[in-house]
Amino acid sequence: MRGLLFGVLVIALAAAPAYALQPSSTSSALAPTTWTVMVYMAADSEPQLPWQDDLNEMEEAVPGTTVNTIALVDPPGPGNSRYLRIVHDPNSSDAIVSSDIDDHGAVIPGSEVNTADPLTLANFVGFTAASFPADRYVLVLWGHGVGWRGLLADGFQLMGLPGLRGALAGATSSIGRPLDMVVIDACAEATLEMMYEIRDYSRYLVASELPVPFEGLPYGRVLEGLTEDPETSVSDFGSHIADEFIAWSTVSSPYSTAMSVIDLAALGSWSAALNNLADLGTRFDSLFHDDLRTAFEGAEAYESAFYPDVGHLSQLLMRSELPVELTYAAFQALQGYDDVVVDFRSFSHPDPFDDVFAENSSGATVYAPSTAPEDAGYFDLRISTTSWDEWSLLVRRDGASNASVAGPSLSFEDGADDDSLPDVAHLEWPDEHADLSAWVFRQEPGGLVLVSEIEGGLTEIDISSVPGRLVISASAADGGAAVTYDVVETTLFGVLDISIGLVLDADDVPERYEVSITGANGSIALELSGDAFTGSVSVPGVFEVGEVVTVVVKDGGSGETVSIRPTSIPPSGLSRSLVVTGADESDESVWVLLAMALLPGLLVLAFDLMLYLDHKKRAR
């Protein structure tokens, strides 16, 4: 496998400075091509990887005129590094027939390079891009990998992720733009840690969260697909790599395998969801440490027990007996994760040689660091700028959950409508606390919908203007750690004002029509007031907030139904227009009554988690 035992790692190199690279003045640049694929092969380490076989596979592909494949290979032993332009070998011989490039020392200063040195990588990428300009640049990092600790081993040295970040920063600065894709042909590098390090220097990342077999990618089929369709998109080329790798694995590998296509541009918006999940995890660890620890330890993991698969961990958090807002945050994190991992392929071997299965893999892993000395380097990574590492430290500690102290009492008030129904819920804690929180969810036909997040201090929180059958998740914290947690189901009421306007022909009048609204529990008739049919009703009651109901328009004289349209019940103010005659009812300029989402900003929390199941369907 393309991984190393941690015990043999000695050095994780620091970040490299930015480099302004130029090719030698005697080097002639080729005409621009569509693609330049740069393969950085760190083969001078143990256990040895089949670098010659992979170069032979590259030579199997017919490059055509649109693709240049350039490789820097450092085989085992001193003084034998080579900088190659891959050419087609029509005889499929074992010998390497590709031609050496005269770089005048820009890539290989002498006869040997250190592939663990960020400067070597920066020089390779910068010089290659300048010498073989293209519309799209793909960098393949080939060698051993050990997750967040590093990759591209040379002897006993590794290139640490900060060093990789520095190398790519320097190289892309000289190119003048980010790379289009980084492909990692090494073990266990589809990690959040890797994503955060290279996000500014490449649009896409293609990598595996599982160990990668010694044979690595099937380069012949990968490159052949690119030469056959050079107009493919970058993301589709990433999917092609994943497809070919898994197709090879299913017939040729004794191991489970996986490959992900990751959109690094989506990482920024997803970071907020990750931070929210980690912040809530940190808040509730004091009361729910045992449940959180169980989820972490139960998640699919490959490199260690605390290197969980992101999707599987999120699912376990959602299904645990945890605060509702924490399970909701896990759902939001998983939804955003689905936008980050844009394509995923896996093969779970029925009898893997290393007993590693991929049944619960979803595309990426993340490490939960501890306070142990060997984890000290983790806090130099970019991911440590999020709240993830703080939460992880709490989860990794040994200890038990604390008991909740006295929580709030719940009372109700009737609001301004004076209908003797409770409109306001009042939470009051017996003791003062620095931080009070109430997350309010409404039970709707599709699941729970978050409708309000209320923060306060000392002893009281009021909840109003949120009619419906509610789940209130309330907690108090001191020093950032929750000391109370309570959840209660209750009902608050509101008045729904309804106004339905009819869009009629010029010679028609609304007086000839009757309008009613029908739901699962009954119906109400509306009265004509001016140009609209109006009415009001308490919710919940005949109608539930979020319920899909039917607006029925009848001809008052004949009793014939002339229009039936669905709509959903909002918490207040149902106002719609309905085409009855004449105008085209498909005209989008008219407010057609549709079965639509309640509010744009609300997410339905479906505990069966269809997004996660979608990931599983795509895991072939």
Please give a structural write-up.
- The chain is about 25% helix and about 30% strand.
- With about 625 residues, the chain is an alpha+beta fold.
- Strands 5-4-3-2-6-9-10-11-12 form a 9-stranded mixed β-sheet, with helices on both faces. Strands 13, 14, 15, 16, 17 and 26 form a 6-stranded antiparallel β-sheet that branches.
List the helices and strands and how they pair.
Blueprint: E1 11-12, E2 33-42, H1 51-60, E3 67-74, E4 82-85, E5 99-100, H2 118-131, E6 134-142, E7 151-154, E8 157-159, H3 161-175, E9 179-185, H4 192-198, E10 202-207, H5 219-228, H6 234-252, E11 257-263, H7 267-298, H8 310-319, H9 324-340, E12 341-347, H10 388-396, E13 409-413, E14 424-444, E15 447-463, E16 468-478, E17 481-492, E18 494-503, E19 513-519, E20 522-525, E21 527-529, E22 532-539, E23 548-555, E24 561-568, E25 574-579, E26 604-605, H11 610-618
Parallel strand pairs: 1-8, 2-3, 2-6, 6-9, 9-10, 18-25
Antiparallel strand pairs: 3-4, 4-5, 7-8, 10-11, 11-12, 13-14, 14-15, 14-16, 15-26, 16-17, 18-22, 19-20, 19-23, 21-22, 23-24
Helix pairs in contact: 1-5, 2-3, 3-4, 5-6, 7-9, 7-10, 8-9
